[in-house]
């Protein structure tokens, strides 16, 4: 008999939340706190969605995402979660850029960037202030015709190096390009520039663990390994139920954390939406934005402080994220995320399974992309025991496959074409 992951679930809830990404978890928690009966259904075997981690033999934890975000997360966590979660957020102060054009170390905030742009890049302070003010004033509902390239041309014409400093981390963070609307850049950049880069002390697994405890305190009915197959809508166009693992569960409302296209086109069905709405939905571009390389150190090895917390590194001599590299090398930015607490505190040994060698991941090798793929299929991956935590190295890049330089990067190259 297969295990019933919906054992003892009720036949009706006020709200069903589909998916336990950060959005689904937060929705479920807020609604339960307001007194609604909430059922949270997650396809995967663990909560968190892309905010995830995986384990390997020996209990080593590989933390996949949530290495850097703006200070606003502290307020959000206090408001929607707990003071304890908010208190676990700490600043990363050693942000570094190393590339053929410049070497910079920064706290990644407006004050420090202004100083660097003035002293090192010799840009006029008025120009810098005007740029920061323009980016700061952007809103999601603003004009979307101006591209990021045009924004940079307006303020820093012909300054490829300045564009690289300003753009590289944001391309890494959200996959946006110079041809995307300037707001996709300006809003994210300004959020970081307000007070720098922050992370969760303890890692994503600790964060999601605390969220789980809080949801249980608030009465959320949490179910993993449960795949929602259908959202049932009545003739009055109101949601009636979901079908999950073959069972129908009634509800008054659904919050879907599954992706927009799946929710509209597959789970609900086109017949329930206007043609205009469907056109908009069909135009949404789903984006995956990074792959990762994991490094492991032999027992006893550590990094010293000079390494920094977050390293943006590229050996490409110029910066053009839209063109494939012309020298056979990979273009894009190699980003090392070295959260100090992880790198210095916990990162000690990986003699098993990597024999102390650096681990490089790629689709199908069972490491990060293996995880993401496995995540979609709800399969369990390795694990057990209390863990050492390893930092990740992420590559955010746009690489034409034919331009890859396999041998230079090793046989298990983790490069991935973006978009
Ligand atoms: C490698 C990587 C690095 C990142 N680094 C950072 C970072 O440094 N800082 C930062 O702020 N963000 C980072 N992010 C982004 C961040 O992790 C995501 O934006 C965030 O976790 C997405 O949350 P979400 O609510 O959109 O849901 P998602 O994470 O997309 O979760 C959706 C959930 O819904 C579930 N689901 C889907 N369909 C169904 C169904 N039919 N039935 C049941 N369940 C279903 C899925 O299994 C999944 O768990 C990173 C992401 C990745 C992949």
Q: What would you note in describing this structure?
A:
By secondary structure, this protein is an alpha/beta fold. It has 2 domains: 12-60 and 203-283, FAD/NAD(P)-binding domain; 90-199 and 287-409, Polyamine Oxidase, Chain A, domain 2 (Alpha-Beta Complex). Helix content is 33%, strand content 20%. It is built from 14 helices and 18 strands. The chain has a 7-stranded mixed sheet, covered by helices on one side. Strands 9-2-1-12-11-10 form a 6-stranded mixed sheet. Strand 10 and strand 11 (239-244) form a beta hairpin. Helix 4 runs antiparallel to helix 5 (125-136), helix 6 crosses helix 8 and helix 7 (160-174) crosses helix 8 (182-195). The longest helix has 15 residues, at 160-174. It is globular, with a radius of gyration of 23 Å. It starts with 11 loop residues before the first strand and ends in a 10-residue tail after the last helix. Mean pLDDT is 78; it is low at 323-419. Flavin-adenine dinucleotide binds at residues 18-24, 41-44, 49-51, 64-69, 227-228, 257-258, 262, 290, 292.
What's the topology here?
Layout: E1 12-18, H1 22-33, E2 38-41, E3 53-56, E4 60-63, H2 72-80, H3 83-87, E5 89-92, E6 95-98, E7 103-106, H4 110-119, H5 125-136, H6 148-155, H7 160-174, H8 182-195, E8 197-200, H9 204-217, E9 221-223, E10 228-233, E11 239-244, E12 247-256, H10 260-269, H11 275-283, E13 291-294, E14 310-313, E15 333-337, H12 340-346, E16 359-360, H13 368-377, E17 389-390, E18 392-396, H14 406-409
Parallel strand pairs: 1-2, 1-12, 2-9, 4-17, 6-14
Antiparallel strand pairs: 3-4, 5-8, 6-7, 10-11, 11-12, 13-16, 13-18, 14-15, 15-18
Helix pairs in contact: 1-9, 4-5, 5-8, 6-8, 7-8
The structure holds flavin-adenine dinucleotide (FAD).
Residues 18-24, 41-44, 49-51, 64-69, 227-228, 257-258, 262, 290, 292 line the site of flavin-adenine dinucleotide.
């Amino acid at each position: 008999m297969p295990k019933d992951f919906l054992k003892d679930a009720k036949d009706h809830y006020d709200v069903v939340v589909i998916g336990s990404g950060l959005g689904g978890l937060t929705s479920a928690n807020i609604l339960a706190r307001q007194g609604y009966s909430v059922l949270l259904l997650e396809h995967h075997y663990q909560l968190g969605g892309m905010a995830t981690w995986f384990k390997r033999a020996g209990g080593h934890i590989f933390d996949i995402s949530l290495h850097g975000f703006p200070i606003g997360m502290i307020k959000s966590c206090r408001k929607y979660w707990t003071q304890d979660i908010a208190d676990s957020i700490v600043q990363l102060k050693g942000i570094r850029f190393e590339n053929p054009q410049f070497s910079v170390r920064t706290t990644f905030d407006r004050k420090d960037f202004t100083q660097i742009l003035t002293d090192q890049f010799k840009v006029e302070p008025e120009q810098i202030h005007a740029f920061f003010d323009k980016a700061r004033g952007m809103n999601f509902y603003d004009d979307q015709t101006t591209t990021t390239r045009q924004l940079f041309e307006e303020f820093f014409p012909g300054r490829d190096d300045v564009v690289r400093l300003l753009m590289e981390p944001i391309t890494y963070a959200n996959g946006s390009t110079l041809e995307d609307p300037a707001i996709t850049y300006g809003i994210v950049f300004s959020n970081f520039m307000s007070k720098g880069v922050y992370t969760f002390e303890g890692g994503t697994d600790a964060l999601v663990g605390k969220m789980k405890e809080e949801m249980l305190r608030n009465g959320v009915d949490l179910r993993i390994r449960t795949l929602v197959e259908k959202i049932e809508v009545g003739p009055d166009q109101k949601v009636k139920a979901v079908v999950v693992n073959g069972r129908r569960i009634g509800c008054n409302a659904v919050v879907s954390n599954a992706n927009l296209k799946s929710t509209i086109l597959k789970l609900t069905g086109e017949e329930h939406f206007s043609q205009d709405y469907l056109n908009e939905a069909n135009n949404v571009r789903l984006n995956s934005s990074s792959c990762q390389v994991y490094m492991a150190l032999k027992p006893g090895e550590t990094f010293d402080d000079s390494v920094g917390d977050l390293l943006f590194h590229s050996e490409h001599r110029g910066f053009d994220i839209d063109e494939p590299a012309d020298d056979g090398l990979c273009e894009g930015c190699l980003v090392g995320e070295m959260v100090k607490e992880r790198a210095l505190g916990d990162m000690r040994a990986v003699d098993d399974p990597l024999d102390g060698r650096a681990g490089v991941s790629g689709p199908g090798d069972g490491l990060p992309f293996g995880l993401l793929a496995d995540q979609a299929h709800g399969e369990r991956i390795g694990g057990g025991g209390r863990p050492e935590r390893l930092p990740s190295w992420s590559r955010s890049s746009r690489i034409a496959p034919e331009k890859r330089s396999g041998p230079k990067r090793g046989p298990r190259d983790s490069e991935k074409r973006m978009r």
